């Protein structure tokens, strides 16, 4: 704006104009190339995964192994209110502004330099929602002048980045039917791509792509065989083949919800989404592989069709969701991708075709399978499965089996990182198992039911969590850091040779990426279960992470809950930098 | 006491009275506010559901009559079920949901089962008022012999998704019925498909199935069926209050026993198109 323009208007008018300018500064829009180059550009973080491939690697090296010990807080922002619980988000930052989501479907726009709030959006949640696994939210997507996120009542909301006003709002599904949404959407080719979450039974998973500017649906791809996909409102081919891997009509309610975030690899033009466990929980009732549950599906964003899939746990009987992220990386001239599954195995896939290249354990104890056959790509099961409840439903408690990992997984939702400098994956793992038994005396909605009981148990006295540096070629654990409580936060690695992650005990920690030596830690006041990011602003490198203990562990943890029950909740965003020299 | 001076004794008695008034029990609290808050399942005909914007059903009527016996009015809240009955008791009776929302004074349609009660000591399971049972409604075109499950190794059977009938049939007869199990969102939808001739039968709890078949119930052979290997195909249904609300528990039990003795319970079930079944552990009035 030309300042001379103001000279001719009244003082009152000038003041009004100035107010408008302050309230709505003209900020640069987030473009497709900003998103495509996110992993390389150090001045911003505009997408989930710090780049669509999801490596969570920043080339920044101003903060490095030599000086990280000096890092201090730059500012801290409180989410306020009486609402706390788990803060699992990854913030995004662009053009001097940070956007972070918080528990209970809240979103904050913050001045990235000062930590001052620009605006706050509190999504109004209806009565009668029963989210299964805490009230978390994992982050927002940026596109154009919009910031887009999903809510606990299964809506997708696009807000104006300047004002926080709603630009469009679309219902993903009916929260009354058990649907919810907690993941961070991703933007691919101008489309906002999401899965669906919630609903332990009766739902059918699907990946959806909407026009990011308007919210209008472009394509829908169901993740259970037999279901018709759509594109531009027209039929677009059935997923898989009806009854190929499901008996009877069970595919109609087969589960397999892709409830966590996705990734996109431009080299292969594929979107990767992990899918949840099949329904119902009793695997004996659904003989077959139950595709495409507990799998990664690779979808072409232009066609909305599945190009390949890889299934981690066929006929899942342990509640091992396959939703964990698939992270693209290149090695030895090959286009590969890594995945650390709930079931305890780390998989290396050829990301051009989904063929298994390597698979090995990343936790110390796995009871359900001896290994993964590299020829067939299938697990070699040990037979440690829960019995059929209808075979022992005579009133006696069924036989208890112990199996590791627990259903909370060798690794849960929290994203790992990959460093192209060290060629290592940094995996936030947990060592725990579970007792599983059939419970003949159970009730549901006032009626008798055939249920199962479970208790999660730590495997070691001194630790559950283990941050592990893993070589995807050799399968070797190069180093590990053990943590008393289970790890539940995301990991980040940098060109400065550092690995960052948080602990439920409240610390954000920095490790030497090569040796695992702990170089720095800071107590944030509540458990860190969010995802750290780093970016550069005015010539300085910054690190940000949300703090606020919660998530599934305190709700489901069984014996593990005892280890974490003293931890206090919170809700704040911490930002760090080196002191001015 | 004998060492207390009369004045001190009076003060003590006064103090006891005050502290007892402050430590209000469940029943005193209910009488104080003049309202009995009752949690009932939503979308659960014929027990508790909305019709024309109003709550109705067997459990809704029962809640009103219990409140009446207590000398208060009923405030009915229709709530969604969570994954297990334990969850529902925690959310609606003794603790509340972490998202907020207050607990009710009493919840109806809670199983009355000593074994189940042992694992849920934060609540009192009381006042069994009905016996529910899994039954089959069979289209008479598919055989007129004794009701038996083997017909479903050949013919389609409808169930509500993720219920006992569903999980049982998926495994029964070594899986030979599995491919013929057709899943529906509700018993009402399964009954509709049966009426339209798409199924040979439906397996579901008796009251839900009878009510869903409505005036056509007589066209089907409806009754219990042998379910080999199953611990129980029937269970008593009662109420739940907080464990420390002993006087409220007694008052609700007495109210329900009186309604049973007066024949009122049976009349409500009839009004909603179902046959009343006496619970196996009936608490008799004054007993």
Q: How is this fold's topology laid out?
A:
The complex is a heterodimer of chains A (581) and B (287).
Chain A: H1 11-23, H2 32-36, E1 57-58, E2 72-78, E3 92-94, E4 97-102, E5 106-111, E6 117-122, E7 141-143, E8 146-150, E9 155-160, E10 166-171, E11 179-180, E12 186-188, E13 191-194, E14 197-198, E15 206-211, E16 217-222, E17 228-231, E18 234-238, E19 263-265, E20 270-274, E21 295-300, E22 305-311, E23 327-331, E24 334-340, E25 345-350, E26 356-361, E27 369-372, E28 379-381, E29 401-403, E30 417-419, E31 424-430, E32 432-444, E33 447-458, E34 465-470, E35 477-483, E36 491-494, E37 498-502, E38 507-512, E39 518-523, E40 533-537, E41 540-547, H3 553-556, H4 561-564, E42 572-577
Parallel strand pairs in A: 1-36
Antiparallel strand pairs in A: 2-42, 3-4, 4-5, 5-6, 7-8, 8-9, 9-10, 11-14, 12-13, 13-15, 15-16, 16-17, 17-18, 19-20, 20-21, 21-22, 23-24, 24-25, 25-26, 27-28, 29-32, 30-31, 31-34, 32-33, 34-35, 36-37, 37-38, 38-39, 40-41, 41-42
Chain B: H1 6-22, H2 26-33, E1 35-41, E2 49-51, E3 54-56, H3 58-70, E4 73-79, H4 85-94, E5 106-112, H5 114-118, E6 123-138, E7 157-160, H6 164-171, E8 181-184, H7 187-195, E9 201-205, H8 206-213, E10 221-223, E11 234-242, H9 246-261, H10 264-271
Parallel strand pairs in B: 1-4, 1-5, 7-8, 7-9
Antiparallel strand pairs in B: 2-3, 5-11, 6-9, 6-10, 6-11
Helix pairs in contact in B: 2-9, 3-9, 7-8
Please tag this protein with its features.
heterodimer, A: 581 residues, mainly beta, Methanol Dehydrogenase, Chain A, six-stranded antiparallel beta sheet, five-stranded mixed beta sheet, 4 helices, globular, disordered N terminus, B: 287 residues, alpha/beta, D-Maltodextrin-Binding Protein, domain 2, 2 domains, nine-stranded mixed beta sheet, two-stranded antiparallel ribbon, 36% helix, elongated
